[in-house]
Design a protein that fits this description.
This protein has one domain. It is 73% helix and 0% strand. By secondary structure, the protein is an all-alpha fold.
Length: 178
């Protein structure tokens, strides 16, 4: 084997091994989940502490904040597992029956669509929170919130459409098939 071929194989091995540089990012996301959990606990404590004296709209706003944190945490789990599976290494199947079936079946196209769907849902909740607090909002703030939400919705629709046009949006791909 010539020097050129050995060099090429060496570079390929280094580049292939470099995918493990992503692993610390997934660990950092797991740490972010812990922080989100602390914030969720803070929301619950606030809800419990002010349950009697709070207005109904205040309780709804705090609950929407908790839903927002839950959706964000779910999004992080989705990114951690499907990203690790798609870009770093297969997640070992140790026969654990409590593991969700979707965990290792989301391809990159499915991940993009699920990410955009989650972002649209989070944006919708944020927009609803702004409208629930209408008396404390300016027209400019309302317009920006609606505009940003509509931008996310349009982006999600265009992403789904481009995925379908490219052939990745088939039922086979959504089920985790090739």
């Amino acid at each position: 084997m010539g020097l050129g071929k050995r060099t090429e194989l060496f570079i390929q091995k280094v580049l292939f091994a470099s995918r493990w540089l992503l692993a610390p990012f997934y660990v950092a996301l797991a740490l972010c989940m812990f922080i989100l959990m602390l914030k969720a606990g803070q929301h619950v404590l606030h809800l419990v502490h002010d349950a009697i004296s709070s207005s109904e709209s205040s309780v709804v706003l705090d609950t929407l904040g908790l839903i927002d944190l839950t959706l964000t945490s779910s999004l992080v789990v989705l990114v951690i597992f499907s990203g690790f599976e798609n870009f770093v290494s297969q997640v070992a199947d140790d026969g654990d029956t409590s593991r969700p079936a979707w965990l290792t079946k989301i391809d990159f196209g499915g991940l993009k669509l699920k990410l955009m769907s989650s972002i649209v849902a989070i944006s919708a909740i944020q927009t609803l929170r702004v409208f629930m607090d209408l008396s404390n909002q300016t027209d400019r703030n309302l317009a920006w919130n609606v505009g940003i939400h509509l931008t996310f919705v349009l982006s999600a629709l265009l992403l789904a459409l481009s995925d379908r046009i490219s052939g990745h949006g088939s039922a086979k791909a959504e089920d985790g098939g090739p």
